[in-house]
Amino acid sequence: MSLIPVEKRQEIRDAVPMFFEAFASKDIDPFAKPLEWVPAFIGAASCGSGLTLKSFDCDTSVPGLYAAGDTANEGLIIGASNGPGGINMSWALVTGWKAGEAAARAAKLKEPVPASPETVKAALDETFAKLGHTGNLDIGDAVQKIQAVVIPARYNIVRSRESLQDALARLDAVEQEIENEIIVRDTHELMSYHELPGMLSTARMTYRAALLRTESRGSHFREDYPELDNKNWLVWTQIMKKNGGYEIRTEPVQFEKFEHFGLDIPRG
């Protein structure tokens, strides 16, 4: 940060005030000299992805599903700031409150959904199918295998068509290994087992969307497409699971939303 021009420094301080408050508490001026830093996996979606909100009630395109914090994609916030800062915490608090209120209101208006004994039995059978399964793969090791295809720089920092396709193939292999070798000794491990498909799906959707976007933008960097392409890619990428696969589409950016906040975004 010592190379950042003096005239830009106050702007940066204003953008992430908590970041600089932390340094100030230790009498450190991050602009004065180079500082040691360690890249870390924060496990958040705050670099440009998440569920798309339909309204300020934080409802999504999936009926009955509400999103808050890092999983709530509202463009101006998600991707606009990352790391320790007041914007992140405010976004988490406000969306958590709004989503909770809206979900409670919606729940009161819903009638109970009748379920036949056959439907209940089928759900129970599916839920508990893996309980007692023996193999050679602990739940914790399964999580680490997924993370090993998510955290490395070649998959999530410096991407290319080759690395993204490799990541997708490795996720398929991990999924197969989980299916065949997972160890589920009790209901606690069963709960953790049911979280694994969500991890795999999130990783797959991330990489499929990254593979589609043939440009570099924000935290998305492609070695094979290093330039920003506003002519073709000034769009939101939306992806959903459908019929056992994934459906991807793009949607034009709603410029009026950003212009309301005084932001000037090039339109091509």
What is shown here, in short?
46% of the residues lie in helices and 7% in strands.
Question: Please, could you describe this protein's structure?
Answer:
By secondary structure, the protein is mostly helical. It is 46% helix and 7% strand. The protein has ten helices and four strands, in the order ααββαααααααββα. The strands form two sheets. A two-stranded parallel ribbon has the order 1-2. α5 packs parallel to α8 (187-212) and α7 (161-181) packs antiparallel against α8 (187-212). It is globular and about 70 Å long. The model is unreliable at 78-85 (pLDDT under 50).
Overview features:
10 helices, single chain, 268 residues, two-stranded antiparallel ribbon, 4 strands, 46% helix, mainly alpha
Give, in order, the helices and strands.
HHEEHHHHHHHEEH
What distance lies between the first and last C-alpha atoms, to the nearest angstrom? 31 Å
Tally of DSSP helical segments: 10
Oligomer: single chain
Pick out the low-confidence regions: 78-85
Rg is 22 Å
Biggest sheet: strands side by side, in what order? 1-2
Structural class: mainly alpha
Mean pLDDT: 86
Determine the fraction of residues in helical runs and give it as a percent range.
40-55%
User: Sheet with the most strands?
Assistant: 2 strands, parallel
